[in-house]
């Protein structure tokens, strides 16, 4: 790692992270920090390869390599119930889908494994899965149901196709009583060790952006209407129903998800969540 190159920060290219990044980029000068926008699966791989230093990343991908990363405290993309952008679209009744085929988006590990956990442990089902690009029409040509996430899921949900739609955040909450954390913010351990002041600057910028964005959602709502379409009332509710904290409630829900994933052997090991703090000490949640 070159000590003098800019820090590269991964930004998920979906509206669900906008509050945490909307003002942050103005606070992080371009000669010291680079923002890299990609879908979650691409950022997960880039983080693993060392192409980005700090990133918003799928919770499941963090868990797979948790020993290599530290979490930035009190930042996440979570939902206490309905998430509105992690959706299972079904052209057949649920009973048939449980025994049929589900097309999975190629863009996120967390949502794919959440669906598998729900199918196996909640419904006692074992459908077949096929991974495809996130195009709903094509997916439903090859499967009974289709999992979409992020902006494509939102835009598909606005169309009246006669499909049944299940919100996985809402279903998880009804089943477990917990909210679900879909994305976390992590830093590579070597970056935290070699450049703690710059990591702290990123943490402060992201935290301040979250605070300002949630205090006044108007700029985010206006941007979403311009860029993605839809009505302002939808986007106001969308940003309200997401949670960007990562306190004890969010951590408890995510731990249950990790435990279930380990039970199904989707994860091979127990996950200990370790956090970056500004004095470079490490806090461990046992």
TrEMBL record:
EC number from the UniProt entry: 4.2.1.151
Gene giving rise to this polypeptide: mqnA
Keywords per UniProt: Lyase, Menaquinone biosynthesis
Source organism (scientific name): Paenibacillus oenotherae
UniProt family annotation: Belongs to the MqnA/MqnD family. MqnA subfamily.
Coiled-coil region: none
InterPro entries, per database record: Menaquinone_biosynth, MqnA
Enzymatic reactions: chorismate = 3-[(1-carboxyvinyl)-oxy]benzoate + H2O
Chain's role: Catalyzes the dehydration of chorismate into 3-[(1-carboxyvinyl)oxy]benzoate, a step in the biosynthesis of menaquinone (MK, vitamin K2).
Official protein name in the record: Chorismate dehydratase
Cytoplasm found in the keyword field: no
Pathway: Quinol/quinone metabolism; menaquinone biosynthesis
